[in-house]
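EI: anyone free to look at a 116-residue chain?
SC: sure, send it
EI:
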Amino acid sequence: MSFTNMLPVSDVVACCAPLTREAMTAEHADDLARSLRAIADPARLRLISIVAASANQEACVCDLIEPIGLSQPTVSHHLKILTDAGFLSRSKRGTWAFYRLVPGALDSVARLLVTA
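SC: here you go
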């Protein structure tokens, strides 16, 4: 057995790299997981996309039913989940509900997708 390839103890590299930024707290992970569950549905992603693409990032529920191809109660259910998760806000005007994208609400999700 050759000992010429052995490194001195001072040259041994640690097996785990040190953290380069603060890791996510358990509370933040719980909040983010709840948010991700809220948008982890194709209909909800489309609803967010339609609202975001609408004038002033706002859309009437009446304008969201047909593009999604689901019944009004189902669309309302999805909108409630998105509102409860903080992605959309709701305002009532007469008999119609209008949904608006909450500024910055998608930021924490977007940061997950950035690798740099």
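EI: The chain has five helices and three strands.
SC: 👍
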